Amino acid sequence: MMNWGQFGLQDANSPIMEELIFLSDFVNLVLIFIITFVGFIMVSMLYNTHINKTLLESQMIECIWTVIPAIILIQIAIPSLLLLYMLDESVDSSLSIKVMGHQWYWSYEYTDFWSVSDNTQLEFDAYMIPSNELESQMFRLLDVDNRTVVPFNVHVRMLISSADVLHAWTVPALGVKADAVPGRLNQVKFIAQRPGLFYGQCSEICGANHSFMPIVMESVDSSSFLSWVICMHEE
């Protein structure tokens, strides 16, 4: 059953996603105003049997319907450009994670954490859980066997690439989406603002099982994150 919440964007969990939602709401408000105004003019002209010739050929009217749309476009362009600069802002990150796309799963490397005992870094693969192995409170086609754990209120950098074909690493609630291109390293940065589970999927048609490589990011506090790192190294 569809509810009204499914017509909008996911709840934001990063400053970038909050700004994206604000921009979307603003643009939709402008569109509603334009559609209402133009629709009113069209309907009034249909039912008006007399049209003023001087009105149709007025230079003032020409100027008005040229200047006003230009002002509206500028009002939309300015916050859009500011948001683009925010997305590309280069800030020192506290945590870096390397993401590799495969057909059809994701692999993760926590390059900042090394095991002293065997001199290896923390890395794992994340496969989708098959439907016959799902447990209660799991989402079909969205849950994975190894979740990507990050601390909230920490600046995280994701380094994204691919081992075979084009993929796209996307988590809508964080407002991040980047292509995973073989031989090329892309990056996205975000700050998770609250704990929770946040889901995403590959957004590039990468093959027959494209819809079976989901992303699950778990945001926890810093102490729980460090405990998880220790447990992963012990395994």
Helix content: 25-40%
Q: Record the strand order, biggest sheet.
A: 3-2-1-5-8
Terminal Cα span: 41 Å
* E-strand count: 10
The CATH architecture of the largest domain is Sandwich
Look at the structure and give the CATH class of the largest domain.
Mainly Beta
- Overall SS class: alpha+beta
Strand content: 25-35%
The major pleated sheet works out as: 5 strands, mixed
CATH H level of the largest domain: which superfamily?
Cupredoxins -  blue copper proteins
Give me the secondary-structure topology.
Elements: H1 15-47, H2 53-56, H3 59-87, E1 95-102, E2 105-115, E3 120-126, E4 148-151, E5 155-162, E6 167-171, E7 176-180, E8 186-191, E9 196-201, E10 214-220, H4 222-234
Question: Main attributes?
Answer:
single chain, 235 residues, alpha+beta, Helix Hairpins, Immunoglobulin-like, 2 domains, three-stranded mixed β-sheet, 10 strands, 34% helix, 29% strand
Fold and architecture overview:
This protein has 235 residues and is α+β, with helices and mostly antiparallel strands. It has 2 domains: 11-87, Helix Hairpins (Orthogonal Bundle), CATH 1.10.287; 95-234, Cupredoxins -  blue copper proteins (Immunoglobulin-like, Sandwich). Helix content is 34%, strand content 29%. It contains 4 helices and 10 strands, in the order αααββββββββββα. It has helices at 15-47, 53-56, 59-87, 222-234; strands spanning 95-102, 105-115, 120-126, 148-151, 155-162, 167-171, 176-180, 186-191, 196-201, 214-220. The protein has a 5-stranded mixed sheet, covered by helices on one side. A hairpin with a 2-residue loop joins strand 1 and strand 2. Helix 1 runs antiparallel to helix 3. The longest helix has 33 residues, at 15-47. It is elongated and about 85 Å long. The model has no long low-confidence stretch (mean pLDDT 84).
